[in-house]
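Lay summary. Proteins are chains of building blocks that fold into shapes, and those shapes determine what they do. In this project we predict the shape from the chain. Here is one chain we studied, written as its sequence of building blocks.
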Amino acid sequence: MTKHDSARPGSPWLMRPVPRPGARLTLYCLPHAGGGASSYRGWPHGLPEWVEVVAVQLPGRENRIRERSAIDLDTLAEAVAADHRGAPYALFGHSNGALLAFELAHLLAGSGPGPAYLGVSGSPHPALAAPRHEVSRFTDEALLDWMVEQGGVSEQLLAQPDLLELALPAVRADLAWLEAYRHRPRTPLSCPLSAFAGETDGRVPGDELTAWSAETTAGFAVRRYPGGHFYLIEGLPALLGDLAEDLSGLRL
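And here is the predicted shape, written in a compact code that computers can read:
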């Protein structure tokens, strides 16, 4: 994160790349497996001024690198609820973060005001999300090969083995959570839901993306972009343009 990033006191879970205290809507963004809040560093510049981006920082990565890598959705839900304080908010997650955002939406809606919008990216419907192999149990070398295959490892990171070694525990923790994940059918969410994916992402064929429509009683949209699982790296302007359009249509 840059020196301008900040979290509200007592909220190590939440980082604000560009604080916008007068925003009408807060967009909480959850990262892919092993990812950190810096994944969303550039997002505020592609979204309207009335949207404040808050990136979720899970333990065991970036400024929380010394903490044990783990996913605690109950504690995260408490942090988000304390942060939005009943004001309108939305959730977005990519890959593993999409499932986290989905589960977080249900937790928050069950104990207070639910999100005004949910965006899920690079993930099949929750009932189809469990991986075929226990990737979290791979050797370091095999796990790294798998990460490179997914397209989410930059050449700069590959050139820094010490940093890669630090990142692997977070990747394993996130993948272990995903491998243990089991979808529980529940009452659909009452907010609009949009599902995003790369056109060549083999994890998310068309029918598995449209299956998300069963998880909302409000509007539903599917959008695909050139690229694979990490389409949003090169295609970020297009994604943020569509996301801004979705958020602009909300009744806040």
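What the prediction tells us: The chain has one domain: 14-130+183-246.
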